[in-house]
Description:
The chain has 156 residues and is α+β, with helices and mostly antiparallel strands. The protein has helices spanning 34-37, 53-57, 84-94, 122-134, and strands at 20-29, 43-49, 71-80, 104-105, 111-112, 117-119, 140-143, 148-151. It has a four-stranded antiparallel sheet with strand order 3-1-2-6. A two-stranded antiparallel ribbon has the order 4-5. The protein has a two-stranded antiparallel ribbon with strand order 7-8.
Amino acid sequence: RLSCDAGPLFDEVPQEGDTQTGMIYVVKSLSRDPEIRKLDGLLHKIGFTSGKMEVRIQNAKDDPTFLMASVHPVATYTLYNINKVKLEHLLHSFFAKARLEIDITDRFGKKIKPREWFLVPQETIAEAISRLKDGSIVDHEYDPDSGKLRRREEAS
């Protein structure tokens, strides 16, 4: 059995020499669209930014990535010494079964498919990030039917 040391990925206090590489942010949509509103509590965007989250989301209502609507921050997780592109891909792959499939028309009439929105309860996102921290995420998968993480079936 391999052990996984996540190192300073999500340490609460940065160590000397650590470099902040960005943050994971989780937001919910404040869209007035009835199809999106009915998903409230389940629909979350898991995003990444190397800057301030507040700056990243300030023009959400004009951005198809944010479903052309304002958003409300739910959680943030600061990252140190990691490749944020790889981490983003890992989390998005982990929740891929729950990705929201939607076309959004931007203000120029172009159709966009936002790829960072998932039908996952916030508590489950928090658990996945906690498991990412301690390395146990490799033993789990997301179950979209229950909205929870479950232990991967052992290969027989």
